[in-house]
Each structure stands twice: as C-alpha cells, then as structure tokens.
Amino acid sequence: MISFPIHRRFVGLTAILLLALSSQAALAAAPTLEDSIAQRAVACIACHNIDGKRGADGYYPRIAGKPAGYLANQLINFREGRRAYPQMIYMVDNLSDDYLHELAGYFSALEVSYPPPPLAVSAAVAARGQALVQHGDAAKNIPACIACHGSALTGLAPAIPGLLGLPRDYIAAQFGAWRNGTRRAAAPDCMGKIAQQLSTDDVGALAAWLSAQPVPAHAKPATSLPAPLPLDCGSVPH
C-alpha cells in the first residue's frame, strides 16, 4: 500500500475543500431568473426580436399584437406538422396546448410600432397589390384581404392575423408554402384555396404593397367585420 506524506494529504484535502466552497459561492452569486412567461418567451425573441418585432434579417414575422387565437393555432400547427419549419417544430414539439396558449396570450398583449421599409417596386406593381388587398379579383374568385383581415389590416380577434409589419420575403414565402402544401390549416383551409388562385406576379405585388404599409400606433385586431367572411375557414371559430 502506498502512503502519502501527511502534508501532501493535507494539501489535497484543503484544495478539495476550497473548490467546494468556491463552487457554493458561485452558485450563490448566480442570478436568479424570474419564473414568468416573459422570461420563458426570451427563447422566442432570439428570432422574432425584442418585444416580438420582426427579426433583423427581414424574414421572421412580427408576432407582437397578433390575435392570441391565431398565434396559438400556429404554434399548434407547427407541433402537429401542418406547418414545416424545423426550428419552430423543435421549439414546440413537447409543449402542451395550455402552455402554447399562454405564450400566445403573452405576445398578443404586446404593443409595438415601427416604420415600414420603402416601397421598392414599380407603381403598376404596387397598384396591383393594393387592388388585391382592398378589392380582390372577382374574375379569379379572390376575395379582398380586408374582407377577412379587417379594413385596417390589423386582423380579427380571436383567430385572424394582421397583415402589417411583416417582411416582404416572409409574406411571399407563406403564399408559396400554402401553394405547395407545406403550410396548412384546419379544413376548410381558406388561405390554401386563395393561394392556389394567385399568380406568382400577384403574390409579389401583394407582398410588396403589404410590407410597405405603416403599422398604426396601438394597432389592435378588430372585434367584428361589416360582413360575413367570404369563405369558410376551419381555423376561425363561428
């Protein structure tokens, strides 16, 4: 049996004791995170930016101020495979309905405003986008965006989103996702049907005009529409 000198054993025990004490001190000094939905939502703002504004790369959508029912539906759609975006699926894959509704309520209550990007398309393209938004296209059986999303385009509580403050690329990408089936909603999928009727040029015009519109201060979803929805939408409660 090998024996160590007493002084070496003493030094070793002292080092272990000091390490234990320093670890305890470090734990005691570590900041205590608040157990709140705001703290948990920090993971979301890594992409959607602080206060739910769109991401710095111009793609991620604004989620602050969207109707809580709409946000909850989208989180559930990611979890259930009706929307395909790996990062979001990973984030929500093991979260319960109650937790997703709580997150949706938190972001829905946020109020943000910021200037729109400049309109970088021709006057003719912008006019086509505006016409589709405000009047639709009867020849293609496309209703006006305002018929569902409200005259101010701030959405309709509890389940129809606002269309303002969204990046141009994001808007165009979502129409593409509806057209190729990688984004779906509860049947009947009204947006999927509308997307099929739009040409690529129409999508570009819509995305360009909508992305250039200002977000009103203290914008809130409408609580009612002047007329019934032009299409049945499975994700909108009756």
Structural write-up:
The protein has 11 helices and no strands. With 238 residues, the chain is mostly helical. Helix 4 crosses helix 5 (86-92) and helix 9 runs antiparallel to helix 11 (200-211). The longest helix has 24 residues, at 6-29. It is globular and about 70 Å long. The model has no long low-confidence stretch (mean pLDDT 86).
Low-confidence stretches: none
C-alpha Rg, in Å?
25 Å
State mean pLDDT (0 to 100 scale). Answer: 86
Q: Estimate percent helicity.
A: 40-55%
Number of helices: 11
The quaternary organization reads as single chain
Question: Which range does the strand content fall in?
Answer: under 5%
Number of strands: 0
Features:
about 0% strand; globular; mainly alpha; 11 helices; about 240 residues
In brief:
By secondary structure, the chain is an all-alpha fold. The protein contains 11 helices and no strands.
Provide the fold topology:
Layout: H1 6-29, H2 37-40, H3 42-48, H4 68-80, H5 86-92, H6 97-108, H7 123-135, H8 146-149, H9 168-180, H10 190-197, H11 200-211
